[in-house]
Amino acid sequence: MFEKNQEAFKSCGDFHLNFDELPTTEGSPPQAESRLKSFLSQVESELPILLKDAYDIAEITWMCDRLRASNRFGADNKLYLQYSSRSDFLKSMETFDWTEIARSGKAFFLFDDEQKQKYYPTTTEHAEPAPLQIDEIVEIINSIPWHNSGTDFFNMILDSHPSLLTIGWHGLPSFTILWKIFCKDKTVKEAVEHLRKPKGTAEIELRKRNLFHMLKYKYEERLPIFLDNLSQYLDSEKTYSLHDWFKAFYLSANAACGRKFLQRITPAVFYDLHGTFQAKLMQSFNITSKEVADMDNEIWLGFKYKRYAGVVRSPTGRLGCQVNSLINGGKSPIGWRNSPLATLKVYARENSYGHYMRESDPAFSVSCHVRFEDLKLYPRETTEKLCEFLRIPWSETCLQITTNGEDSGIVDGTAGFDVKPVYNTHPEYLSTLDQYRIELLNAKNFQVWGYKLKYYDGTKFSAEDLKKLFDIPFKVETLKLDPKKWPGWPNQEEIKSFHEWILQRALDVMENGEKDYSVDKNGKSLRLIEVLVPDLKPGQKLYE
Question: Sign of the CA dihedral 99, 101, 105, 108?
Answer without folding.
Answer: negative
